[in-house]
Amino acid sequence: MNHPIGVQEKVSPFFAFILIHSAQTGIGMLGFQNKVAGSVGYDAWIVCILSGISINIIIFLIYKMLKDKNDLINLHNHSFGSFIGTILTLAFSTYLILSALIVFRTYLDILQIWVFPTFATWYLGLFFIIAIYYTVVSGFRVVTGICFWGIVIPGLLLFTIGFPLKYSTLGNIMPIFDHSLTSMVKGIKDLTLNFMGFESILIYYPFIKKPDKSHKWAQIGSIFTMVSYAVIMVISYMYFNEEQMLHALWATLNMTKIISFPILERFEYIVIFTWFLVVLPTVCLPVWSVGRSLEILFNVKPKNSLLIVSIIIYSSVFFIKGRISINMLNQLVGTLGLYFIYIYIPFLFVINYIKSKIQRHFSS
Amino acid sequence: MRSRINRFKKEEKNNTLNINKIINIASKSSDFAHINLPINNITYDLFYYESLIDSESVHHFVLPYLNQEISEIKEIKRLIPLVGISISSDAKEIEGKLLQGHILLQLQGEDKVVALLNVKDVKVGKRIYNDTENEYSVVGPKTGFVENIQINLNLLRNHIVTSNLIFEELTIGSTSKTKVMIAYLQDITNDQYIQTIRQRMQDIDFDVIFDASFIEQLISDNTNTPFPLFLSTERVDRAVYTLINGQVVIFSDGSPYAITGPSNLFDFFISPEDYYLPWVVGSFFRLIRIFGVFFSTCSTSIYVAVLTYHYTMIPKDLMGPLVVSRANVPFPPVLEVLFLEITIELLREAGARLPTKVGQTLGIVGGIVIGQASVAAALTSNVLLIIVALSALASFTTPIFKMSNTIRLLRFPLIILAGAAGGYGLMFGMTMILIHLLRLTSLGTPYLLPFYPFRKADLGDTLIRSSYSLTSKRASYLRPKNIWRYNREKARLKKDKL
Amino acid sequence: MQWRYFGIVMCIFLCGCSNEVNKIRIVHTIGYDKEGEKIKGTLVSPNFIGGLTPKSETLTDTAETNNDILFGINNQSNYTIQVGQLRTVLFGKSYAKEDIGKTIRSLVNNPDIGRTLNLAITEQEAGEIIKATEKKDSLYIYNMINQNIKTGNIPNSNLHTFLCSFYSKWEDSFIPYLKTKGKNEVMIGGLTLLKNGKYVMNLNIDQSFIFTIINADASSGMHLFPIYEKDKKDLILLQNINSKVKYSVVKSKIPTVHIKVKLNGMIKDYPEWINLENKQNVQLVEKQIEENIKKEAEKLIRQLQENNVDSLGIGSFIRSRWRNWSLDDYRSTYQKMNITVNVDTTILYSGIGE
Predict the structure, then answer these.
(1) What is the per-residue pLDDT across C301-326, written as a single tens digit (0 to 9) for each?
(2) Is residue C209 part of a domain?
(3) What gap in Å lies between CA A347 and CA A58, rounded to an integer?
(4) What range defines the domain where residue C329 resides?
(5) Are strands C338-349 and C256-269 parallel, antiparallel or unpaired?
(6) Engineering a disulfide at C33: which of A300, B179, B220, C92 sits with its beta carbon 3.0 to 4.6 angstroms away?
(7) Contact B423/A at CB under 8 A
């Protein structure tokens, strides 16, 4: 359109893997085991795999849609006309802001409960929002860089996996397939929140060089997320048994409490602080996407629009207080995500397909 | 970012000079001499700056030969046995050359065309011996550049014996008119870098250029960063190595430091010594250097964060020494650490300026007495003293001095952030540094190559130094025209077929 | 510009909400006892002023719940009580007979507490045990329990293993057990078995060895075995170098469980009339040890079954192998199960002779 993208801003196709994976792994990994403890229990790793496969199908649909349309704004305008298209894009932007906001607030919540009970939330949030603003205002290249380092640096934590394994028993997750199929389907719904985040590709798709080549990398990224979640789920359920999991609200952090080195004892603090780098891409990618869509729709400079978006996200510190509100908002965003991913995207795909067919029919 | 360079962009000035005007202005200076030689029917007028010329050359090669008549100024070339004679009528060129140690030879008050004889004294006032002062290596040659640019170019041409080594000369600085040379290998270096450097340097409008570092700051992509974007070196072997890789070297007359670009963050941790030792040993020491940098930046902040907010992370056996050492200290850990860090910075700054006779004594006073006394007076803890001293030491492990300054600077915000919000503040500080590094580009190439954007082929020479059989390709991020340095199969071949 | 400086200065001085390491009172051990309707808590905190090895300081208070006790002790202390470095929690036997679950849940709810801390039940009151070790340093009991886990007859036990078995419906818990010896000495007395957080029975040191080797893979412990040859009878001391254990189940209305132990041992003390260089002698000794362990183990398991406490985790093992085996099946058949033990001993070393 009228905002061309210079070669300097584009990233190579391999980075689709990193962008998809880092946007999906956010705050969920710290405490997602508890949500399914009552229903699916120790077969939850199977639910992770099923969930991941469905996301792969959705990514396939997205790539098919974006092949000639380039990004969501074009897609909306082409399918629904310019006025409704703009409104739909704005709704999508609001959804992105909400998902970034809930991750932001949940991370601050975890910090306050686990590490700094006496600090004010606005104080902790100030650091986070400054980092977010500095990242998104620097352009897509820097955002991708943060996604990259957000996988590499926390990946070093994986080397400590031996400690929980020492206390795990394989018997805790046997026999396999012990729970009913209906509870597994319900489990998929509970775990959707963890696989959300990849929707920003609808906006940053044109920033990838040779976008069609990046399809396989995006699929690999999603599979990698699925595998990581499944592995962590398996290890958690081997470490805790099913009844204990009902009491462990943040299972991953509880699990890392057992890790200790001669020079350093409570490893869960290091996990929480390193998670800052995991959560930053999850928040920055949607916020950057919102800045880009506003730039295309209304010609606002990202520097200004992103300032307003950051202030909106920061204001959640004042409006959302307490665990109950955060849980409610998490569920709300999870439900919204569920509808968006599993209902809206296939619907858009169908409409786009029909419209293209009609147009081709008329032009020939 | 470009707008900051435009601040130094040149504006066109009017000049209405002619030769007589030049002579009139210059005559005001008492070192401007005039010799008037009437020979038969013509008069030779010689004008020169006494402080710039080599009077031996004038006595032996100029004056004895001015004993004949000539009709045209062009014939002076036959008379005088000097190499650098030029005939010119361009007033600007004449003024420039006069200021560079040329003699203005005027024929009978002829106003339009004069001869210029090059009798510049190159040896005056500059170092000739060239031991590297600040970049020492135990093994390997110790030759370094000096302040005289001709000697530097000579040194370079001795190591790179190919006509593909091109030197482009520029004059920068309206008052200092410093001679600046851009050196590159034309069959390897990507033209884009040369063009960018050339264009940026031609746009500079600055008055005095003392050192290549001035140029570095004037042409860099981002002047608001503490990280150096060009590598500056005194050593010949380092400059040669960067040329071989496809980078550009910039020399400036009057400065022994050459700057090379484009560079990335990991270039600053490479020491030439790594290449003279076996690759296993070299890689190990490089890793220690990088560990030293991390330790130096973060160790005091970790101390502050753990002792102020995260006492649960201290192992049970370390609890005793830490609590006992802090038993009587009246300040919170942040202030204690800042106090000690500022003391060490003061020691360093004072030590750099102390005359040699006083330096040794005061070094001992600073190091031992102040340290011991402050522990005994319970102003700081002894555990902290060890950590601060070690981290100050570790910050000097970077081979390039400019980077060690950056590391020392980066420590302070991290300490303050750790004191403000513990481990979270420290993580925030390190993330901001990371984002800043991601934004930096040196002549257009990202600063964090080859880790981001990830290039597997270039990893051979960053964290570890692979053996010579594996480094037969040049770094691809510099986009050289020719990627092979030498034949790979031959490098891997065992030499004796035993 | 001024706001930036102000912010920096504020950051330095906002350390008011901090836990500076020498301005807090660290707690290393807590002991809980029953006193009437309330709980009495005894706290041991280190005092580093004398030197690097901490001396203990003891503070006590009585209140209804755990955190109330800590708050009450806070009122007596010059520095804030911080439980982040808690290493050992002791429960008096009389308190354990009621329910330790309430206090455990209160402790675990606190994010500061780690999971590597040790729990122990004490024969006398926890306050008495703490008093007996007053002259020693504050980590004495923690070090004693831990080194016995490494080289003694106690299996690996910390807060995490306790919580696993406490919350699980298919198994019961065990934790080490301390008692006083004389006026100023404390010793490990064996293991205590708990069901739903309530005290059920004790095992002494010898029984603890058997328990350790049939519970899970172990690599420590010593036990005296009687051996006899023709008409000579004496004792042999065997040290466990490493042992592996494998469970298997035969599914039927009343399940049968086979426990197979493979033990590699080293002989520490043996009578002079046995020559351990002789292969037949060694095999004789091994066989006798195996029979002895089998007898003792089956006796121990029968005791567990009689008291209806499943600290070996047999229920959870069978559940993992048998689909559709319900909790009722478990509860009704545990006491009648047929559990056999088979041992395979190998004697690796027996000293250097001389």
Answers:
(1) 999 999 999 999 898 899 888 888 88
(2) no
(3) 11
(4) 216-354
(5) parallel
(6) C92
(7) yes
Does any domain span residue A294? yes
Q: CATH no. for residue A286?
A: 1.20.1740.10
Per-residue 3-state assignment (H helix, E strand, C coil) for A247-314: HCCCHHHHHHCCCCECCECCHHHHHHHHHHHHHHHHHHHHHHHHHHHHHHHHCCCHHHHHHHHHHHHH
What single-letter amino acid sits at B103? I
| A272: nearest Cα among A135, A106, A114 | A114
Q: Select from C203, C225, C245 the last residue of a domain.
A: C203
Answer whether residue C285 is part of any domain. yes
- Per-residue pLDDT of A128-184, as tens digits, reads 999 999 999 998 999 999 999 999 998 888 888 888 888 888 888 877 777 888 888
DSSP state of B246: T
Tell which of A264, A275, A284, A287 to mutate to test the B interface (max B CBs under 10 Å): A264
What would the mean pLDDT of B377-396 be, rounded to a whole number?
Answer: 88
Could you tell me if B294 lies within 8 Å of chain A, comparing CB atoms? no
Question: In B309-400, which ranges are continuous DSSP H helix?
Answer: 316-325, 333-353, 356-364, 371-376, 382-394
Per-residue confidence (pLDDT) for residue B227, from 0 to 100: 92
Given C180, C203, C226, the domain boundary residue is C203
Do C23 and C100 belong together in one domain?
Answer: yes
pLDDT above 50 (res B241): yes
C321 min Cα distance to partner chain A (Å): 6
pLDDT tier, A280 (very low <50, low <70, confident <90, very high otherwise): very high
Is the Cβ pair C21, B324 closer than 8 Å?
A: no
The number of folded domains in chain C is: 2
Nearest CA to CA, how far is A302 from chain C (Å)? 24
Which among A175, A243, A258 has the least Cβ separation from residue C116?
Answer: A258
Number of structural domains (chain A) is 1
Nearest CB to C164 within list A116, A175, A241:
A241
Which residues in chain C have Cβ-Cβ distances shorter than 8 Å to A260?
114, 116
Confidence (pTM)? 0.89
- A217, exposed or middle or buried, with CB in 10 Å at 0-12, 13-18, 19+? buried
Contact flag C21-B326 (C-beta cutoff 8 Å): yes
Interchain proximity A11–B453, CB inside 8 Å: yes
A-C contacts (CB, under 8 Å): 52
> What string of DSSP letters covers A123-144?
HHHHHHHHHHHHHHTT-HHHHH
pLDDT of the residue at C10:
56
**Subunit contact C160:A258, Cβ cutoff 8 A:** yes
The CATH number covering residue C271 comes to 3.30.300.210
CA triple A299-A300-A302, angle to 5 deg: 125
- The answer to which of A166-175, A341-350, B223-232, C147-156 has the lowest mean pLDDT is A166-175
Q: Does the pLDDT of residue A277 top 90, yes or no?
A: yes
Nearest chain C residue (CA) to B419: C12
Q: Which chain B residue lies closest to C117 (C-alpha atoms)?
A: B316
Alpha-carbon gap: A198 to the closest alpha carbon of chain C (Å): 32
